[in-house]
Write a structure and sequence with these properties.
α3 (55-62) crosses α13 (252-282), α4 packs parallel to α7 and α10 (205-220) packs antiparallel against α13 (252-282). The chain contains 13 helices and no strands. By secondary structure, the chain is mostly helical. It has a single domain (55-282), classed as MetI-like (MetI-like fold).
């Protein structure tokens, strides 16, 4: 019996090792290529960069102004995630407190948006944005607001798309909060707003952290909405990386240098929030 258990353990360890190697090989290849010149990459795409060079990273930030697109992506990601978490936590709290069919209707209306693929919404959403801009322009007393090729417009559009996912995650977690806590707060004379701020939010911090990381990755890697609604003025990091992709030729060392640079913020964010992220996952924050 012990031999069987030991063999199974060996098989599991070997399987995990093989799986890790399969995952790490592409990542190491990208990292290695980012330190090569174009000539080195063409001559030996799979060999180590000897000698290694950091010219690609220098060109990215000095000649291609990647720091500007970094700034745009940071602003876009931060405000989109912040606004999404604020509104989705309110809706999740309302779904929990309403109860009965009212909770089902409110929750269902928002979560139905998850059933529609983003690609299906592209044309209707673009048409809606154009009509909204025309309406604002036709009303004289409203300031001229542009939703296209502006960061605030992209933030509003992406927030509306991500609300469904965030509400789904936070509602599932808030339902695990004991109702007795809210009842005790109500007996003490607390308002719904006070219960939301002082009871629901502190207890939901793990779910908020895990949801924030999910949303950060989605927003930071967004390309579809950036391509559709922005141009040169509000170009994000993902759009900037397309500069190194050509129809007939691509500068892969520069492209992979940009990919490595773009991955660093998400890795750092996860390192700081991993405790909350794991707590949110294990506490049932993704249970519907």
């Amino acid at each position: 019996m012990k031999k069987i258990v030991q063999r199974l353990l060996t098989v599991r360890v070997a399987s995990l090792f093989i799986f890790s190697v399969i995952i790490l090989i592409p990542l190491l290849s990208i990292l290695s290529t980012s330190f090569k010149t174009m000539k080195q990459y063409v001559m030996s795409p799979l060999q180590l960069p000897i000698p290694a060079t950091v010219d690609n990273y220098i060109h990215l930030f000095v000649e291609n102004n990647l720091h500007i697109y970094f700034k745009n992506s940071i602003i876009f990601t931060f405000f989109t995630v912040f606004i999404t978490i604020v509104f989705s936590s309110m809706v999740a709290f309302a779904c929990v407190r309403l109860g009965g069919w009212k909770s089902f209707v409110v929750f269902g209306v928002f979560v139905l948006g998850m059933l529609i693929p983003a690609q299906v919404n592209m044309i209707p959403l673009y048409g809606l944005v154009v009509k909204l801009e025309n309406f604002v322009a036709s009303v004289g007393w409203i300031p001229d607001i542009k939703f296209r090729d502006t960061l605030y417009g992209l933030i509003i559009i992406k927030t509306s798309v991500l609300l469904s996912l965030s509400i789904f995650i936070l509602t599932g977690f808030m339902k695990t909060i004991p109702k007795e806590l809210f009842e005790a707060a109500a007996v003490d004379g607390s308002t719904e707003g006070w219960m939301f701020y002082r009871v629901a939010i502190p207890l939901s911090l793990p779910a908020i952290a895990s949801s924030s990381i999910f949303l950060c990755v989605i927003v930071w890697n967004d390309l579809l909405y950036s391509l559709l609604f922005t141009g040169e003025k509000a170009k994000t990091l993902t759009m900037a990386l397309l500069m190194f992709r050509g129809e007939y030729e691509s500068d892969y060392p520069m492209l992979f240098s940009g990919v490595v640079s773009a991955s660093i913020p998400m890795v750092v964010a996860y390192l700081f929030l991993q405790r909350w992220f794991i707590a949110g996952i294990t506490s049932g924050s993704v249970k519907g």
